Amino acid sequence: MPRRHTPILGHRVHYGNLIASTLPNRHVRSSGPACRRRGILLSVLTDDDKHLQDYLEGFLTPRRKERMRQVLAERSRYIVCVLEDLYDPRNGSAVLRHCDALGIHEVHAVENKNLFKSDEQVDMGTAQWLDLHIHRLAGNAPRSVKGRRRAAATAATGEAPPVESNTPAVLASLKERGYRIVATSPHGDDDAVPETLDLAAGPAAVVFGTEKYGISDEVKDASDVFLRIPMVGFVESFNLSASAAIVFHVLSRRLRSEGLPWRLTEEDEREIYFRWVKGSAPHAEKLIREFREKQKSG
Questions:
Q1: Per-residue pLDDT tens digits for 185-223
Q2: Among 240, 242, 233, 225, which residue's Cα sits nearest to residue 188?
Q3: Considering the chain, what is the average pLDDT of its residues?
Q4: CATH code of the domain containing 230
Q5: How far apart are CA 295 and CA 122, in angstroms?
């Protein structure tokens, strides 16, 4: 995996009263005109962006560029991953690693009581290759875990309004983009399993709940389909990250074998590749400054 570099530009997407932001030092977003594909806002590369990309590619090896294009050709947004209020960084990090390995390009981490953190020793640097959106409450919501739990306890006594859940707005935004909400749960005999989920019915946002309690009531209310992994032992479920690995492995293989439109659009591929080049070039900030200076003097 490449060395990690400081991002040049931040990326922040607003969902109503929520702010979805990428992890620090993980993603780079280009500036310029925008378009929409499957409801997501994409930056259209300008001529200046293309010249910058050509310049930065000169500092990458042919092997690195070919590897990035090979991986990008296998990426998909047909299935996206949603993680609701995880508290163990190792679980979230393992899921990010699974998503990268299986071509699931878009991940949404929903914070309600717990902050989402990624452990680089577990995710092996894969988060920098994903579109990772961390949905945080805007305004005066407590930022620390203790602060959020204290606010929730105060709300339960009736002394303050209940802490607003982030989940409904995130799921609503995904539905607006055309995704079905697929809620994972070990309960229910009539639920779909990874091998039987109707992928031809349209894109799916697969939701995994918090480690101890599973999906919230908000997820249950918003779900279009429930998904379970059949179990025959005494335990009723796998570890969260193991469940995600099993589900996405099966769904990823099915996407590629059932003739579904799972690939990224050309516009999406170009925009992602541009960000990857900027994130992979050594000393990218310095190189971009040099490029701008040459433009001005030339």
A1: 987 666 899 999 999 999 999 999 999 899 999 999 999
A2: 225
A3: 82
A4: 3.40.1280.10
A5: 41
196/215 same-domain check: yes
- Domains in the chain, number: 2
Beta strand extents in 22-139 (DSSP E only) = 34-37, 40-43, 79-84, 106-110, 131-137
Whether residues 101 and 191 fall in one domain: yes
The pTM of this model reads 0.81
Task: Specify if 281 maps to a domain.
Answer: yes
Model confidence pLDDT, tens digit, residues 163-182: 678 999 999 999 999 999 99
What confidence category does residue 1 fall into, taking pLDDT thresholds of 50, 70 and 90? very low
Q: Which of 126, 65, 9, 98 is nearest to 273 (CA)?
A: 65
- Same domain as 267, residue 255: no
Q: Indicate whether 33 belongs to any domain.
A: yes
Whether 10 contacts 1, CB under 8 Å = no
- How many whole angstroms separate alpha carbon 174 and alpha carbon 145? 26
Q: How many CB atoms lie within 10 A of CB 190?
A: 6
Residues 228-241 have a mean pLDDT of 91
Return d(Cα 26, Cα 296) in angstroms, integer. 29
**Do both 218 and 258 map to the same domain?**
yes
Q: Which domain covers residue 191, as residue numbers? A: 76-262
What average pLDDT does this structure show over 63-68? 97
- Same domain? For 292 and 180 the reply is no
